Amino acid sequence: MVRKPKQATKPENIKEKVEESVGQTINVLTYPVGFASFYGGVVKWKNVFHFPSEYCDFHQELDVSGASSTLADGKRVFLLTDFVCSIVLERYGIGFVEPINVVVTPRAARPVFLTMTRASIPGPTPQTPPNVQITVFSWATNGAPAPNVEFDWRCRAVWISVQGPVVSPG
Fold first, then answer.
1. What is the pLDDT of residues 55-78, one digit of tens each?
2. How far apart are CA 117 and CA 77, in angstroms?
3. The pTM is what?
4. Which alpha helices (H) appear in 57-145, and where do they start and end?
């Protein structure tokens, strides 16, 4: 038996298929997923091996926020760079270092809890800047994973440029 290859959905049919699956007309197919802003500030560093044991220098801070939801297993994993425009990342070679602060807030009428972990992860190559992986977990009041919980999140991190000196975007 010879199978015919599946035909790809034509771009002009995608909107119709999405409308059919959600049961309503969709007028807009783009939506914001994140907001990022850059600020300058002073980072205080401590060094246990040298005197003086602390020093300060100027770095940029990235403040990123977005909205998402956990999946059926009560978990969502994403990278911080998923929510920052790629042109900014490419132009400045941005990577993230400590301190990194993440806050998640549920959007739910029912009682739920959110916890999260975050990790600084190396880029895929030595020349690629480090990224931040954020994992959000949603829990019902009985301690079982709570599926499909919408949440807002915000992350602040010091960013570094691997392509030269740190400069203010824009």
1. 887 777 888 899 999 999 999 999
2. 9
3. 0.69
4. 86-92
Give the contacts of 100 (CB within 8 A, at least 6 positions apart): 118, 120, 132, 155, 156, 157, 158
Helices (H), 24-167: 86-92
The half-sphere exposure of 81 on its side-chain side, counting CA atoms within 13 A, is: 20
Distance CA 22, CA 44 (A): 51
First to last CA, the chain: 60
Taking phi first (over 0 means left), then psi (-120 to 50 degrees means alpha), and beta for anything else, what does residue 75 get? beta
Q: Which two tokens stand for residue 140?
A: 């019902």
H helix or E strand, kind and range, residue 77 = strand 75-79
Query: β-strand 131-140 against 75-79: which pairing, if any?
Result: antiparallel
Which positions ≥6 away from 121 have C-beta within 8 Å? 130, 131, 132, 133
Instruction: List C-alpha distances in Å: 8 to 5, 14, 132.
Output: 9, 10, 35
**Single-letter amino acid code for the residue at 146:** A
Element (H, E) at 21: helix 11-22
The pair of three-digit structure tokens given for residue 148, joined into one six-digit string: 């499909």
Give pLDDT tens digits for 49-58.
877 778 887 7
